[in-house]
């Protein structure tokens, strides 16, 4: 531990956890569109215990810090109630600082997501079908992540009408 002046000691490290545990390689676990997520930024050590702030696009989105002096830790919790497409790979910064004399420690995390298709279309000639005649129909899907798996099912007219 090095002192910054006036007995200030910088934090030793920062860790981000999501709902499944520690975040690795600056990327959360994958979450479905519409799901909620909790990100916890945990700072270890420092004297005084550091302030922990979440930012997105340079703007503070939460600066409520919880302090745990007995464990020499402080943290900030970021809860997003409903993930939207705009959260996909959105970079969130956790900034940890206990002194104006030294720059904050910054840890970045992006949110990985599964996205359902935005559109599914059948492409082909729009003509009546008849037995014994071949027709090509293409199913095109867009907007899903990962790419959608398209499956064709053959059903009888009676099953379809029920």
Automatic annotation (TrEMBL):
Residues annotated as coiled-coil are none
Q: Where is the Ig-like domain?
A: 11-110, 117-162
Q: Where is this region: Disordered?
A: 1-23
UniProt xrefs under InterPro entries: Ig-like_dom (IPR007110), Ig-like_dom_sf (IPR036179), Ig-like_fold (IPR013783)
Task: Write down the Gene3D superfamilies for this protein, in alphabetical order.
Answer: Immunoglobulins
Q: Which Pfam families match?
A: Ig_3
Q: What is this protein called?
A: Ig-like domain-containing protein
């Amino acid at each position: 531990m090095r002192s910054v002046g006036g007995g200030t000691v910088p934090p030793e490290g920062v860790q981000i956890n999501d709902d499944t545990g520690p975040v690795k390689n600056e990327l959360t676990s994958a979450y479905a569109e519409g799901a909620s997520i909790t990100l916890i930024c945990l700072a270890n050590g420092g004297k005084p215990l550091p302030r922990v702030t979440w930012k997105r696009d340079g703007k503070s989105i939460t600066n409520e810090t919880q302090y745990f002096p007995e464990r020499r830790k402080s943290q900030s919790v970021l809860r997003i109630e409903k993930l939207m497409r705009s959260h996909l790979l959105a970079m969130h910064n956790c900034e940890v600082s206990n002194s104006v004399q030294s720059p904050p420690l910054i840890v970045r995390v992006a949110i990985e997501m599964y996205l359902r298709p935005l559109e599914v279309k059948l492409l082909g000639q729009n003509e009546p079908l008849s037995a014994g005649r071949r027709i090509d129909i293409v199913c095109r899907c867009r907007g899903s992540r990962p790419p959608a798996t398209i499956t064709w099912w053959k059903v009888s007219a009676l099953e379809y009408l029920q």
